[in-house]
Amino acid sequence: MKTVLYPPEIVDISQPVIFLAGPVQGAADWQTQAIEFIHGQHPEIIIANPRKVVPEDLFNHTIQSDWELHYLQKASVGGCILFWLAKEETHNCERPFAKTTGQEYGFFIGKCFYDRANIAVGCHARYPSRKYSIHLLKKYGRGAIMHNDLFDTCQTAIRTCLQK
After folding, report:
1. Spans in the chain with pLDDT lower than 70
2. What domains sit in the chain, N to C, each tagged with a CATH number?
3. Is the pTM of this model over 0.90?
4. Cα 135 to chain center, whole Å?
């Protein structure tokens, strides 16, 4: 059965989950491609996807953040966080591109180094902080590699998730 979890509902699950971490605002919808690829190979894997279209007047940042933090933590210890550092498609002068992604990436690279976290990381050639993201992963990622392709990143996330 194909299961994709979206905010704001938090569901109690015991199975491994892949969390799709990476830019939403200003990025193409890479999450749909990742979901189709992962479920095409392993439909039983649960995926947490933070990209849900919500009208701006109904969006609640606290609820969204709590949902993301819940499933990021769950995936980091019982599944895999799939980081896809996508390129910017649409620029917004009011908001730095991938601001939240950068914070989550830094936090979980640190967690990976100090406490172990299950991550799979890929980076588009035109991601704005590519060099620094690669440097952090090499220095603190405990052997994790940086993929250049979304589907290679998905494969690593699947392997990591199935080992749990």
Report:
1. 164
2. 3-162 (3.40.50.450)
3. yes
4. 19
